[in-house]
Design brief:
alpha/beta, Rossmann fold, 10 helices
Length: 263
Amino acid sequence: MAPPGVNPNIPHSARIYDYWLGGKDNFAVDRAVAEAMLKAIPGMRAMAAENRKFVHRAARDLVSGEGIRQFLDIGTGIPTRPNLHEIAQRIAPETRVVYVDNDPIVLVHARALMISSEQGRSEYISADIRHPEQILEQPVLQETLDLTRPVGLTLIAILMLLADEDDPWDLVGRLRDAMPSGSILAITHPTADFSPEAVGRAVAAATDAGMTLVARTKEAVARFFGDWEMLEPGLVPVSAWRPDATDVEPETAYYWAGVARKP
């Protein structure tokens, strides 16, 4: 049975990702879209996994290398362990994390699984990236994060759900403007740069199901970072951002990934 507020006849990106990652919190409509996209890109499950690995590497490096002790993760998705706060709090138990998503199923699981360390804090708010000021004005966010200190803002595979007409660059710019100096922005975004035909078929499958899914060029993704300073190795294929393994084939996952620091 679907939780209140969930229409099991309308596909949702968080539940599609859940299916690709082997989860059970999805409906037939989600699986149908996921399978249609898998037909277009057979490696889609591996690509979803690469996004999760990027989150782990970025959280680890931002806590240990950049001194980040608080995160705002927008477009959280259904929790898969280890979660961002678990990675961060292993290194710095006092780290605080606020997760944001607009799917009631994510809320149900967030309450059950996102258990913080005793020293830190992990919270969840239901909100939409299309309304950045509403996110920033949430009492839970203001109680959890200190916006006078650097924040790790993570936008993982979420901006693809915004059409150009939504002006996602302006939305991200408003979030960037609210972050203090020393804050970090981490983004992953699908692209057709590596395989235009396959990605085109996957986008068509999502569009046919009534979803918005936009694959953007490297140049378009770079615009999301504004004038922030890109950290090494820059904007690269997601598998190539500070990989743990040496045998990485960067362009097998059709996502750009980058991390930047606010001056």
